[in-house]
Amino acid sequence: MPNAKVLESKKAVVDALTGKIQEATSVVFVDYKGISVAQDTDLRKQFREAGVEYTVVKNTLTNFATKNAGYDFSEVLNGTTAMASTTGDPIAPARVVCEFVKKNKLKTLSIKGGIVEGSVLSADQLNGFGELPSKNALVASVLGTFLAPISSLAFVLDQIRIQKDGGAPADAEA
């Protein structure tokens, strides 16, 4: 039986992982086997730039942590596992992994599963999220859609004003 000091340190790791899982808007478990050190360094850099925390985790301790947080990932927590979590953009971890796999044409790096805003998602669902643009890009797209009719109306009204004033825009005369 392991000594009390080892058990306490493992308990502390499980508690820390449980806290990360509970606080995060998104947690993605990644199978990272088959990538080089240079590729791993590049992947970590991309995660940092996206505001995602990426750490290699022990499956047994992570399994205890996910169960403490109310989830069951015992089927996917095997082999080489890393955890990418964020409290920001919920699709950022999946998007970074998907973009990295495409860019480097990797067949070994893959998503195992994860949690997005409290919902357990499969690898296929997370890979689908990886195809989406960032949250800010989606918000900008929606706002652009809202502003398009107003902009068109302003343009039409300006054209009507120009026609009434004799054909030249007001700022062209200055």
Summarize the structure.
By secondary structure, the protein is α+β, with helices and mostly antiparallel strands.
Which helices and strands appear, and what pairs or packs with what?
Layout: H1 4-23, E1 26-31, H2 37-49, E2 53-56, H3 59-68, E3 82-86, H4 92-104, E4 110-116, E5 119-122, H5 123-130, H6 135-165, H7 170-173
Antiparallel strand pairs: 1-3, 1-4, 2-3, 4-5
Helix pairs in contact: 1-3, 2-4, 4-5
The main pleated sheet reads as: 5 strands, antiparallel
Q: Supply Rg.
A: 24 Å
Strand order of the largest sheet: 2-3-1-4-5
Order of helices and strands: HEHEHEHEEHHH
Number of helices: 7
Which structural class matches the secondary elements? alpha+beta
Keywords summarizing the entry:
174 residues, 5 strands, alpha+beta, 7 helices
Write structural notes for this entry:
The protein is an alpha+beta fold and 174 residues long. It is built from 7 helices and 5 strands; from the N terminus they run αβαβαβαββααα. It has a 5-stranded antiparallel sheet. Strand 4 (110-116) and strand 5 (119-122) form a beta hairpin. Helix 1 crosses helix 3. The longest helix is centred in the last third of the chain and has 31 residues, at 135-165. The termini are far apart.
